[in-house]
Amino acid sequence: MIGLSTNSEILATVAATYPDPPINVVRNSLTTTATAIGITWTQGTSNGGSPVLDYLISFDQGTENFVPLATGIVNSAYVASGLVSGNFYSFRVQARNAIGYSQISQSVKILAATVPNAPISVSRGSETSRT
Predict the structure, then answer these.
(1) Where are the alpha helices (DSSP H) in 1-91?
(2) Residue 76 in contact with residue 102, Cβ under 8 Å?
């Protein structure tokens, strides 16, 4: 034996896991129209020890089959466009950190439609008098 080597560098690691799924996935009335649906959500309780990088949005067009709609969404809002007015669409969201994607959020079912305008005026119909 010739001798001991010098000490190696100390490597610090942080244990991380998948983030919690997003919560409170809801319709955004400000960005929903007859052919577009806006959704917002809140980041889950835990990011898994690694910052959330982005989100994956999936949707179902009434077939009970969710398909990816958008990836790499960096904020907590999204607008799906090119939809058919009067159809229902379901959306769900996953968060991604350095480890990978979270479980799937609860889905939300939303009608592609606009809120009707308020009536311009209300008129009274003719009344018949009773004697």
Answers:
(1) none
(2) no
Quick one: pLDDT at residue 56? 98
Query: Chain centroid to CA 93: how far?
Result: 4
How far, in whole angstroms, is CA 54 from its chain's centroid? Answer: 11
For the chain, domains (ranges, CATH) are 23-111 (2.60.40.10)
Query: How many beta carbons lie within 10 A of that of residue 61, not counting itself?
Result: 15
CA distance 59 to 40: 14
Q: Which amino acid is at 116?
A: P
Q: Measured between alpha carbons, how far is 83 from 113 in angstroms, rounded to an integer?
A: 10
Give the bridge partners for 92, in sequence order. 58
Mean pLDDT in residue range 67-82: 97
pTM of the model: 0.76
Q: Pick from 95, 92, 93, 90: which is nearest to 45 by CA? A: 95
Statement: residue 25 has pLDDT above 80: yes
Residue 67: exposure state from Cβ atoms within 10 A (0-12, 13-18, ≥19): exposed
